[in-house]
Amino acid sequence: MSTITDIMTHEHRHCDDLFTAAEGAASEQNWAEADGAWTQFRDALLTHLAREETVLFPAFESQTGQTQGPTAVMRMEHQQMRALVEEINEALRNRADEEFLGLTETLMVLMQQHNMKEEQILYPMSDQVLVADSQLLEQMRQVTTA
Hints:
This protein is mostly helical. The protein has 5 helices and no strands.
C-alpha cells in the first residue's frame, strides 16, 4: 500500500467496518458493545479527517493552486459529518435507539457519497500531483486525534 488512494481507501473500509459494528449493536440495544464500537469508529473517522485536513489537502492545494476546488467541498462535508457525529454521540448517551439509528443512516449516506468522490476523484488526482511522496504518507500516518 504505497499510494494515497490505497492508504486512504483502506481507512475508509476500516471506518465502514467499525461503523457497521456500532450500528448493529445499537439496533440490538446492546449498549455496552455499541459504546465501544462507536468510540472506535468515531476516533478512526476523526483521525482520518484530520489526516486529510492537516496534511493531504494542504499538500494538494500547494501543488495545484486549487483552494476552492475538491478540497473545499471535502472540508464542508467533513464539517457536516462532525456535526452528525456529535448528534449521534448524544443519542448514544441517551440510549435513544431510534434517534441513533436515524442519524447513523444519514451519516452513512453522507459518508458513502463523500468517500466515492474522494476515491474516484480527489485521491487519484492527489496521487498524480503528489507522486507518492513517502514523506507525505508518513506525515499522514503520524496524525492522530487520540
